[in-house]
Amino acid sequence: MFLSTYENKLDKKGRVSVPASFRSYLSNLGYNGIICYPSFNNQSIEAWPQDRIEKISNTIDTLSPFEEKRDFFATSILSESTNLQFDSEGRISLTSKLLKHAKIKNSMIFVGQGKTFQIWEPMAFERFKTNARKKANLHRASLKWESQLNK
Fold first, then answer.
1. Number of other residues whose CB lies within 10 A of the CB of residue 94
2. Chain segment 18-38, per-residue pLDDT in tens
3. Which domains are delineated in the chain?
């Protein structure tokens, strides 16, 4: 899983090192890279393994081919996705479009989200995290263990 948060900086060539634990998880899944797209929920970059992006693509494909929602999701996620391969030192080159969306200048936070991760500008993430913690505290009773769901 993708867990914890890590801060890294862009190098002079515009590359950033993906945290070793994230690369290890992806390698165990058989991947040497990550799919990234601009989040439409936050001012961040979504980073998903190939199997997760295929799952969302399959979900989009269940919609009618002539349904407007299908085009909205395909355009917002699939057409904006970029397949970024790791170089020999575990770095990726984020596109200028992705960096601009997340307002990342040189430093970024990699945020584990379980099956996916996000990349944030550090100050924007701190603001989001503070708000998320308050909201998670308000909604904590909605999280149920699997055994509770089966009752």
1. 23
2. 999 999 999 999 999 999 999
3. 5-122 (3.40.1550.20)
